[in-house]
Amino acid sequence: MKKRAPSRFPRRRGLALALALLLAALTMIPALAEQEEMTTVTDTTIRVNQLGFLPGAIKTAVLPDAEAAADSFRVVNVQTGETAFEGQWSAPVDNPGAGEVNRVADFTALSGPGRYRVLSGDLASPEFDVGEGVYDELFTATIKMLYLQRCCVELDEEHAGTYAHPVCHSGPAIVYGTDEKIDVDGGWHDAGDYGRYIVSGAKTVADILLTYEAYGVRSDAIGIPESGDGLDDLLQEVKFELDWMLKMQRADGGVYHKVTGAGFPGFLMPEKEIGDMIVSPVSNAATGDFAAVMAWASRVYAADWPEEAAHYLEAAELAWSYLDAHRGDPGFKNPPDVVTGEYGDEHDADEYFWAAAELLKATGKDVYRQAASEFMEDGGKRRGMGWEDVGTYGILAVLTDDGLSEDDALRQAAKAELQSTLDDALKLIKANPYGADREMTYEWGSNMGVANTGALLTLGAGLLGDDSLKARAQHSLDYLLGRNATGYCFVTGFGTLSPKHPHHRPSGARHQAMPGMLVGGPNNGLNDPTAMSVLRGKAPAKCYVDNLNSYSTNEICVYWNSPLTLLLAGIK
Ligand code: G3I
Ligand code: 9MR
Ligand code: ZN
User: Fold this and answer.
1) Which ligand is nearest to the CA of 560?
2) Average pLDDT for residues 234-246, to the nearest whole number?
């Protein structure tokens, strides 16, 4: 405790001073009201990560219009009113993707816990926190979201609240073009629609397995029905998807691409979509992704679920034998009368590479080592951690394979590839004041790309022995949580300004956004009628609209959430 300084004023003067202060405080009330007003998030508001920062993190805010504020800025503690940090804005930086000239405020040195905002002239940022645990609630919510997307089971009130629903989409599904009906119950609804797709599910599984393996994250308190049973909730949730994936495998090892209705339903709760479920044909991409995540899971689940683990490995090897016999098959195309998500992919060398790398890591067999080497060039270098390009997952598998020595040629090639992937991303991040690794193109689901890059930076820090990479991942997170050209924190239910009308059927049906979902974000392809009508002419980084109908900017997906989960785990 600080000692109170003796008063420099005699009593009477003390009273006069108190009165004067009171008067001053009263006259300040309009100023305070004004201050409240100016903090409403508008296009000129200072952009900042609306959740905040861990004490040791790089901390920055961005001024969208370089001309709009004074040269200096203050970071004020909103509870005490004290200025906790003062600094100068950077020189103006061109930001063509946003159509802006920005300035950056760096207040990394501020590390004391508290709730703050950045002020400059008559501009302010939203409030944010500095402290341990600022991302804990968000982390849990991003995983809980997967539970809320579970299909073919009842979600009860206790665990799903507003989004509780009876069993949906359950029962035999028709294998396209045949009379055969098969049981494919289980798995997560992909996104705002209720389809269940192998390639996007595999990407989600990969990110959660990475969260578990790379960072040792364990939780028995996600708030799913299995919580509290002593087994890990991340693995429980992923197992729900894996066990569905197993049902999507044909006897010859090939894996069906997806199971969906013939088209997309309206904004109904899932149990109200009652048309036939159709299993679309096998694809190499689905089979490769399947082989990769099953081989991976066989290692991770061996301790707690040995029987399942053995089954996963068997399924992975069977999938590989299918792939081996089907080299060169064309990529998946929607059958003429199925119009749900296509997830078409003409290049399968990356799926072959990832599958071979995971199978090698799980079994050590020479046949997979040869295949991994064979597909390294065409597949390993097809960078990506998405539904389409997955080379980077294979690279990560090779780099963490204890069976390969440090100087193994495959490992050396993987290391060089990871280094150059990250170098390229960092160049883009450094050139963009908002920290997205984007220039003039923001693709459908660009937020996944940003989250992937942040997640890869944190993983790269460990794998390449460079701690500075982890610190830089903060830029990706800041972008997603509010320091961007739209001013939105892109996760529903979090931050000061977040999407209220995501393209997500349960949210639409209940007229309330389900929390913890990362929306797709800016997409200057303007790939839906709403985007076309309201975003035309906007700068690429501003092509986002919080509108239920804008599926190309405001949809949500399990595989957009999962890299955010991974990024959050890596930043801690
Ligand atoms: O391949 C081109 C590339 O050459 C080009 O440089 C780039 C420029 O934007 O575009 C690339 O194609 C894009 C493709 O994704 C691959 O990234 C298309 O423009 C883009 O329209 C396409 O978007 C996909 C969208 O489905 C439409 O097919 C999204 O990635 C994908 O996330 C989304 O997935 C949907 C499912 O179909 C259904 N469920 C919801 C889900 C999310 O909206
Ligand atoms: O709701 C669908 C969304 O999940 C998909 O990502 C998107 C693109 O395939 O399509 C949405 O469905 C729209 C359909 O394509 C066109 N008619 C309006 C549908 C939205 O309600
Ligand atoms: Zn369902």
Assistant:
1) 1
2) 98
> 87 with 73: CB under 8 angstroms?
yes
pLDDT of residue 406: 94
pLDDT for 533 equals 98
Residues with CB under 5 A from ligand 3 (ion): 151, 168-169, 270
Residue 293 lies in a domain: yes
Residue 180 falls inside a structural domain: yes
Distances (CA, A) of 329 to 49, 324, 348, 386: 45, 11, 9, 21
* Residue 347 confidence (pLDDT) above 90: yes
Ligand 1 pocket test: pick from 259, 260, 444 the residue with the most ligand atoms within 8 Å of its Cβ. 444
Cα angle, residue 532 at apex, residues 529 and 535 outer, rounded to 5°: 135
CB distance 365 to 403 below 8 Å: no
The answer as to whether 560 is a domain residue is: no
Structure tokens at 527: 């790939």
Candidates 475, 413, 479; CA nearest to 446 is 479
Could you tell me the CATH number of the domain that includes residue 327?
1.50.10.10
What total number of domains does the chain contain?
1
- Chain-centre distance of CA 21, in angstroms? 50
Which sequence positions are flagged as catalytic?
A: 193, 503, 546, 555
End-to-end CA gap in the chain: 31
Q: Do the Cβ atoms of 118 and 33 come closer than 8 Å?
A: no
* 46-435-537-489 Cα dihedral, nearest 10 degrees: -60
Q: Which ligand is nearest to the CA of 518?
A: 1
> Ligand 2 in contact with 267 (CB < 6 A)?
no
DSSP state of 206: H
Instruction: Say if residues 539 and 486 touch (Cβ distance below 8 Å).
Output: no
| Burial class of residue 224, CB neighbours in 10 A (0-12, 13-18, 19+) | buried
What tokens appear for 534 in the block? 């309201």
Owning domain of residue 231: 138-424
- Tokens 């979201």 correspond to what residue? 145
Tell whether the model's pLDDT for residue 325 goes beyond 70: yes
List pLDDT tens digits, range 413-453.
Answer: 999 999 999 999 999 999 999 999 999 999 999 999 999 99
Q: Is the C-beta atom of 199 inside 6 A of ligand 1? A: no
CA distances from 363 to 8, 83, 358, 360, 473 (A): 79, 59, 9, 5, 33
Any domain includes 198: yes
* pLDDT at residue 41, as a whole number: 42
